[in-house]
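Re-run requested by the PI after the first attempt was lost when the workstation crashed. Everything re-entered from the original request form. Ligand of interest: nicotinamide-adenine-dinucleotide.
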Amino acid sequence: MSIINKAAAIGGGVIGAGWVARLLLNGIDVSIFDPDPEASRKVSEVMKGARRAYKQMLPGGLPKEGKLTFAKTIAEAVADADFIQESVPERLDLKHKVLAEIDAHAPANAIVGSSTSGIKPTDMQVAMKKHPERLVVGHPFNPVYLLPLVEIVGGQQTFPEAIEVAKEIYASIGMKPVVVRKEIEAFVGDRLLEAAWREALWLVKDGICTVEELDDIMRYSFGLRWAQMGMFQVYRVAGGEAGMRHFMAQFGPCLKWPWTKLMDVPEFNDELVDLIATQSDEQANGLSIRELEKIRDDNLVAIMEALSKQNKGKGWGAGALHKDYTKQLAKLAAKPAAKADGKAKTAKPAKKAAKPAKAVKPAKTEKPKKKSGKKG
Ligand SMILES: NC(=O)c1ccc[n+]([C@@H]2O[C@H](COP(=O)([O-])OP(=O)(O)OC[C@H]3O[C@@H](n4cnc5c(N)ncnc54)[C@H](O)[C@@H]3O)[C@@H](O)[C@H]2O)c1
């Protein structure tokens, strides 16, 4: 059962609409602000896809959906929200403008999550003049309504209590919150993805493989391993009976060989964009983005369902969470009238989140002590 009474989404593009879908499908009312005149159509397209995916997860029926309201201003959208998720384009000046407005008009105890892919929360919360201590980065992965991970990052002014409440909020909508221990640009997920993407661009640019061949090399091999065990546990097993130490001894020295291009970035010119985009068009073989989204969603549900049956039926990794999440949604579906009297389901986040606004001192342990702008 969610602990959010009313949510606001600021920005309803790829990611904002994904948040809206996850929240609505958990029965939570959402107020959205997005200046794009096409926003309503785009959000309803994403909702269609999300409903379709959730119907596969819950053949017995979905919970009663929350109500979606399109607000005319940020002030109107956040006025009575206890959880606000910002998902506007990745520009610091825009994040400042939008977060300042959210901060000025949201209830003091509301938690504010930013979907940013890499901007440090310390650099964003300077724009929040009233309650910067309630800002966390809540970095999701696309499609937000299916992929459970959310990286939570606090800035120098974020109170530890805000991080705790954010963890509860995201977990209550079926997500797996992982708190990033130190504030760095791009956090953990995008650090890894960027390194892999940079290398992939070199391999295609240098004519070593096409985009399709590269994707095949990934999805027929280590992509399958990563989805269920990640990187380190897979390497532990690859070390044979001697495990991780043997693996490190064998492959550690290779890191010094000239295998990868590492930090070199291929020149991002029209030639490179054309090469990648043309090969990507060929690979799609006439399938539209919406058709590819359906295939992606079906495959993700199938993978999570398969993993939910592993480990003697207890589920493994994302599958264990998937099992709990579908149970939670089925329970919610069984009591559709819970909100009919307009009463809050629980005042938990509001109460707890009220603390960081005034009464709670930042704890020394969790707060990043110094700026960490260095690429790691
Ligand atoms: N696309 C991804 O895979 C991905 C993954 C994780 C995080 N993110 C992050 O999510 C955020 C949004 O990315 P996206 O891919 O959804 O971008 P997008 O371009 O698809 O959507 C951005 C939306 O914000 C709206 N917008 C612009 N100005 C606004 C304002 N002043 N107030 C409210 N809405 C406004 C736009 O109209 C648009 O609909 C970025 O910070 C991005 O880094 C993206």
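Saved to the shared folder this time. The pocket of nicotinamide-adenine-dinucleotide is lined by residues 10-16, 33-36, 39, 87-90, 98, 115-117, 139-140, 142 (CB under 6 Å).
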